[in-house]
Each structure stands twice: as structure tokens, then as C-alpha cells.
Amino acid sequence: MQAALSATPAVLTVELAPEAIMAGRPPEPLDRDRAELLAGPIADDLRRIVGETVAEAGLVMPAALYDLTELLRPGLPMAEALLDIYRGSLRGGPFEPQLLAIGSAGGRFPESAIAPERRVGSGPLLAVPFALVAPGPLLDPLRQTLESVLLEKGRASLATDRALRQLLGVEPVHLSYATFHDLSALLKIQLEHADFGGLWELLEACLYRPEIPAAVTLAAGNRFLAMDGIVWTPWLTWDEWARRNHANPRDTEAGYMAWMQHQRQYMAGLERHGVEVRITAPVPGVEAADAEVALGVAQAHALEPTAASYRETVASVAQAPHGPAAAVVSLTEQASPLLGPIAYTAMVQAHDGSLLELSHDYPVRESGINEVLSHWQSRADALGAAWHLERPNTVTSAGTPAQLQPWLDFEGSA
Questions:
Q1: Which domain, by its residues, includes 255?
Q2: How far apart are CA 51 and CA 33, in angstroms?
Q3: Number of folded domains in the chain?
Q4: Is 262 helix (H, G, I), strand (E, B) or coil?
Q5: pLDDT tens across 251-273, in order?
């Protein structure tokens, strides 16, 4: 009985000059005919670097360029997808080593799971991924050889360089082969050099130790908890940050903006690598030193996975059947020149000016801005109340610890 097929992924890294890629998208994938013209020299390179035994394994390669964030994802889905494609090509028959180059047809990739995203700003380090496929006993020694020699001796040939330039229209400044573990080591160095060591810790946990709880706390107060390829993070509000640090408005603005900037950067970095990020309320227990305890609390107080905003209710008066009716719904956009809107303070008042409701809505994702605006405008319409949207282009707060305040000088900017 033949052993089950296994795959070991690797890449041809394609380093471009920064100005060559940041302004546009990576090139479109090659069609099927031209895909083989790129796969051929890559297969020749592997025989030269690894040895002729590499020809005993199959080689499957999508003829496209990918950003590294598309490849280093929890569960390494690219490797699994390439193995499935190769397995399907055998049509239930026994394993045979073959060169399988995957190209587009009619402008579309045959497998949407591996279609390159071609995001604006990708690079300048891109990659052509591929996988060696063979029964486990045959592949294991090849995998070990790849890990030991590919990065050290893996410079691409002139034929491969020429093929990339002619077929994909890129101008590489450096071409070399690397395993996915090599890519991880490179990513670690890059992130740590940019002072994002905590982001690497989370990615490493999601990629290689998903079954073990991991916690990262930043100096700005951000907290991230990883498990099963998912990251939970408590959303600190302005008022909560100020309470924890007993800070006045000026100090809170400096400290909270640092927290917000890190929060957005880490969430964006995680999500670009395919890591799901779930927002949780900043309740006691999420800061516990024991990652497993903190994770349990976070999971119990998490928002819905699709939530785009988080509401902090400051005051709410129960409405009696014959109580005062709402007359005005005002929304203050709390914004920073650097970060844009960070929160919206909603205030509902009766005709006599008495406060019926006060809350702060925080967009936790970009779509949350429109969600918040739409909610409160609809609320005003439903109540038959006047609607005000104020954009003072600043953050309005008072007290120690600082608390967000509504902008009371209505100018009817809605």
C-alpha cells in the first residue's frame, strides 16, 4: 500500500526595488502556456541546488507573484491547497512525479483558494510559491535537504531571472530560494527591526503553536491573546485608558493615541496574514498574567466576530410611557489629525435639555464609521428628534481621569 502523499512548500523570493512595486499592483498571473515556461527553469534550479533526487518528487507551482502575507498564514493554506491540486491531478491513480504548472484561464485562476490578491503596495519582497509532493517516506529526506541547503545555496539562475523579466515584466534586484521556515525567520528579523516584535510573537504562535495560549502586552497598554490561529484583544476606550492611568486630558490624548495607533497597526498586520482578530470588552481578568485565564475571560466577553464598532454606555435613563420625549440626538466625532476619527459621542436629550442617554461608540474597523453614523441618524429619525453631527476636528474631554465629552456648541454640520 502506497504511503499518503505529503507536501513541503518553498518559494522563489523576488526582491524588487521599492519604487517598482509600491505604487501599483503585482502583475497578473501567467496563463497556462506561459506558466510552464516559468516552471521549467525553476525545476532546473532545484535539481542544481538540491540534487537529482528532487526529480523523484512532484513539483506543483502557481505561476504568479504573492506578497509574503498571503503565504505565511495559520495552517499554511497555500501548502494544503497545492497538495490538493496535485493529488487531484492523479485522478485516483498512483503517485507519479510530474511538473504541474498552474496558470490562469480566461483571466481567472482555476483554484480561487490560491488566486493572488495583487494588493496595491505589495512587496517589495514578493514570492513565487511551489511545493514538492511525494509519499511521506520519500519526501522526508528531501524536506531536510531543503531546510539545510536552500537558503544557503539557493541563488536563482540567469534563465529563471530572464523568464521572470520576460513573462511577468518585473525587474528583480535579487532572486533566491527559501523554505517557509526561512521566510518566517526573515519576517521575524524585519518585524523586530521595525519594533514590532510583539506582532511576530503573535504570528509565530498562530502559525506554529496554535494549540498553546499566548499573550502579548505592549508598553502602550495593548493586550493580545492568541489561540487556535485567532487573536482576541480588549478594546480600551478613552475613559478606560484614563482611569487606568489616572490621566488628565492632555496626557490621555498622548497616551491613548499611542494605544490606538498600535492597536490599528497590530490588527492590520494580523489580518493581512489571515489571522482573525476578535474584539473583547476591557473587563477585569483579560489582563491576567496566566494567558489561559485571560483568554477564557476574553472569549466570554467577545463581541460578535463581524462587529465593526464597540459601544461604551455612560448614562441611560429608562423611558417611562409618559416620560419626556427625545428632542435632540447629537453625535460628536472625536478625531485626531494623525489617526482620524477614534470615537463618536452620542447624546440624546429631552425638550427641557435633560439627558436621556450618553454613550461613546468606537469604530473598531473602518466600516464601523458608517455603521455608527447610520445607527444614530436612524435613531433620531425613529424618535422624531432633531439630528446634529458635529465635527470639531479634535477630541473633547475634561476631568482627571479624563472623560470624553459631547461638543455642545451645535452648528448643524450634519
A1: 195-300
A2: 27
A3: 3
A4: helix
A5: 999 999 999 999 999 999 999 99
